[in-house]
Design brief:
Residues 34-53 have a biased composition (Low complexity). The protein is an alpha/beta fold. The protein is 38% helix and 12% strand. The protein has 14 helices and twelve strands. Strands 3-4-7-8-9-10-11-12 form an eight-stranded mixed β-sheet, with helices on both faces. A two-stranded antiparallel sheet has the order 1-2. The chain has a two-stranded parallel ribbon with strand order 5-6. α7 packs parallel to α8 (210-223), α8 runs parallel beside α9 and α9 (240-247) crosses α11. The longest helix has 36 residues, at 374-409. The radius of gyration is 31 Å and the shape is globular.
Amino acid sequence: MASKATRLRCLYAPPIPTVRPRLHSTRTFATAVSEPTESTAPPTSTTRRSPTTFKDRLNAGPSLSDFVSPPREDEEPMLATALVGPAGKQKEITRLPSWLQTPIPNNANYKSIKRDLRGLNLHTVCEEARCPNISDCWGGSDKSAATATIMLMGDTCTRGCRFCSVKTSKAPSPLDPHEPEHTAEALKRWGLGYVVLTSVDRDDLADGGANHFAETIMKIKSKAPGMLVEALTGDYAGDLEMVAKVARSGLDVYAHNVETVEELTPMVRDRRAKFRQSLSVLKHAKEAKEGLITKTSIMLGLGETQDQLWETLKELRNVDVDVVTFGQYMRPTKRHMPVHTYVTPVVFETWRQRALDMGFLYCASGPLVRSSYKAGEAFIENVIKKRARKNQTALAEGAITSGFETTNAS
């Protein structure tokens, strides 16, 4: 029997390396582990340590609780500032105001929707545009209570707007021919009552992707006839025939965003996107299908003035736009336009009232409101259903009246 000192190993294994113990002097070891007493002076070290500038900078910056904690009721609408950087080279930064702080998405339903999207190779503008409402919209009690804005035709845009974080390229990947079917199947599986579809701009395609968009809507309506569909489209480079094709494909709400006031459009949007061209899209969509609801969205905080906003709302009403939303512009990265102003909730409420007074059917306005906004979609859904019931009642009354007149004539 082998002795205790014998070390067993496989015959084909490499030799076991010999590890030599590291020797320490008794004095060094004692200095490292013992605490100084009254009779012993504390040890002095001659080793110079580098200054902990990164740690100081980290501690001076915002903490996780600054981003996820809800605002206090007694908190004033002021922007907090903090000094960051090493001593002597500190700079002041502005923290996000309390009304823009949102919870980190970590909901079971959020994870379930994300798995479905990845499994079918679908993209959402919620993720690509880093929407702050993703936790609220995806985190409902069940999938039927959740909303997700599906982004068609890939995740790469041919335009480069200065406010948007979606990837850009002159030659994106070819369209996925199975995307309309996969999108319709996913939405049918979720059982949603209202869905929003959007897309990247595809100036590389002859039709701008309008036929692909229209096919997706028709497949959704064939699989789920009761589902209401909103389409948030591009301007198709001003091709109004493509606008009409999407408007007549069976959708219920046609949305196209002007994004900002006319004066700021050249600095905010891609040079191919023009304010007047966007107005033309909204007008033609309304004329292409009777009863179609039209919708647009405006970002605040880019440096617009009150007079410019007034004029923008008047222009939208002139082309009979039904719904407008106001939201705070949030800078996605340092490569994008800086925020000019963080608009307070009180100002957003003021513009909501003004829009309603001007005759808009509905206006969602708030710091975290985005073009695809859950509360707005719920309101529009009710409006569409009421209109449908009213039309059915009118048809039924017309049929009864016609039958009564025929009976009297005979």
